[in-house]
Design a protein that fits this description.
two-stranded antiparallel sheet, about 25% strand, disordered C terminus, about 220 residues
Length: about 220
């Protein structure tokens, strides 16, 4: 069995927290793992947000015997979470599963450039809070016979598809970052590569395809 040796107990706890949050939105969630040397990237897609979440994990060594080889596999998030031993700072890689479609289309590894205009962290948190409040207010104002799933989805799409301060980053990406525990302070940045935008924080990243750019910048791996 492949065993990943994480850098320390805190790294293991953060990985477990990330997996738990993904499972909160999808009990059958899968994650794609890519490891090389002492770096592990964990990709997940919470369905409510339509974004790709990426958690970087520091490793002491990638495998039980310290072999310097790469790992690329899609596994059950639940099984991976069950294998995390925080006190030992290890995680056993479960057997591979048939990956969902998103797992075959990841953001490019390189070519990222900084984008201007991202508001300060406090403003981003305020924007999410205001959007949640607007959604709640507008849905509560609906007459009972109009409070259908289709109408709730329409209001949600309208609110969460708005962009942040003209950056092109949809508000849903910021909401996802907050819900996944990524907006906890520290330096945040917005980056682009091809058709992708990425909100990067010290705790993880959220990537999203920009509308209207077709398949430009796809990375199928």
């Amino acid at each position: 069995m492949t065993v990943l040796h994480l850098a320390d107990e805190r790294e293991a706890a953060d990985l477990a927290a990330f997996l738990s949050r993904l499972l909160h939105y999808d009990r059958s969630a899968a994650v794609r793992l890519q490891a090389a040397g002492t770096a592990l990237a964990v990709f997940g897609r919470p369905p409510s947000f339509e974004v790709l979440a990426v958690r970087a994990v520091r490793l002491v060594k990638p495998y039980e015997n310290g072999l310097d080889v790469t790992l690329d596999v899609t596994v059950s998030a639940g099984e991976l979470l069950e294998s995390v031993d925080e006190s030992a700072a290890t995680a056993a890689v479960p057997g591979a599963v048939t990956g969902p479609p998103w797992a075959g289309v990841l953001p490019p590894r390189g070519g990222w450039r900084a984008e201007p205009g991202l508001p300060a962290p406090r403003e981003l948190s305020g924007l999410v809070a205001a959007s949640v409040a607007e959604f709640r207010s507008r849905t509560e104002e609906l007459a009972p016979e109009l409070r259908t799933r289709a109408e709730l989805d329409r209001i949600g799409r309208e609110i969460w598809s708005r962009t942040v301060a003209g950056t092109g980053l949809p508000v849903r990406a910021v909401h996802a970052a907050q819900s996944l525990g990524f907006l906890r302070g520290g330096e945040q940045g917005l980056f682009s590569s091809g058709s992708w935008l990425r909100l990067r924080t010290p705790y993880g990243s959220v990537a999203v395809r920009r509308a209207g750019l077709g398949a430009l910048g796809l990375s199928v791996r």
